[in-house]
Amino acid sequence: MRLSMEQIVNAVCLNMAERYEVPPTSVEVELLYDEDQGFGAETWIDGRSRILVEANLKEAIMRYMQTEFDRRVYPSQIQLDVEDEMWADITE
Question: Could you give phi then psi for residue 15, rounded to 5 degrees?
């Protein structure tokens, strides 16, 4: 299964909204990729910026897979990749 960039953004929004007890619509997300730093994201909630690392993205994707698809996945099953856009491949 492959998650699109939009689905990854939704996963991060939902995860951060739950964590900080705010509505998902109040969370802004920008996905990041750097050859040295790897995958990450910058989020804004109530005007405060938070930087997420790859492990945080995978955590958000794991929760998203559970709530949206009723499927339990582990970090080792999630492979992030990027060309023109970021995506996540979920293996069995």
Answer: -65, -45
